[in-house]
Amino acid sequence: MTAALVASNVMLWIAVVALSLTVLALVRQVGLLHERVAPAGALLPQTAVKVGERAPELTLHDLDGSDVKIGGPDDGGRTTLLFFLSPTCPVCETLLPTLLATARAEDASIRLVFASDGAGEAHAEYARNHTLRDWPYIVSGELGIAYQVAKLPFCVLLDAAGIVRAAGMVNTREHVESLFEASDQGVASIQDFIARRREGGDGRSAA
Question: What is the dihedral of CA 21, 25, 31, 35, to 10 degrees?
């Protein structure tokens, strides 16, 4: 009976060691997976307007008929956040609370501008239903073409001098926040920052 007890203890310890090794292997794999997929920043298509370049300068009308200047130095020294959307885009709608909260919290330093194209009546109704009339809302195909917007939702971040500091497709609150993080880090996107850091640099642009 003593031999059986010893054998069972040995088998138990073997099982514990095997389980421990399995857990360690899983932890390592999770760490590698996390490194590969995080953080998920805004996706910058290759065809989009180039970060670091001067933004196209346009003066367009908003839904109220007021002139809105996009590009060039901002008279108030503010950063401009362009949000390209569509009334038929459900993801665009889910991002509105994040954008509005950011605009309200940073009113002195950030100018939020909504942009789209299509029928003005549909956009006017959309703006009313979502309480967007306090911010410039431009309906212009010219603006989307100038910034090479192919998919929605899409954001462009311009600094006070009118330079494109970050841009990309955004699907979550984290994507929107990543634009500001990329701008602060001096890179085109969070993915660019990670790539530079893996190559041995500090992640910042040479500019």
Answer: 160
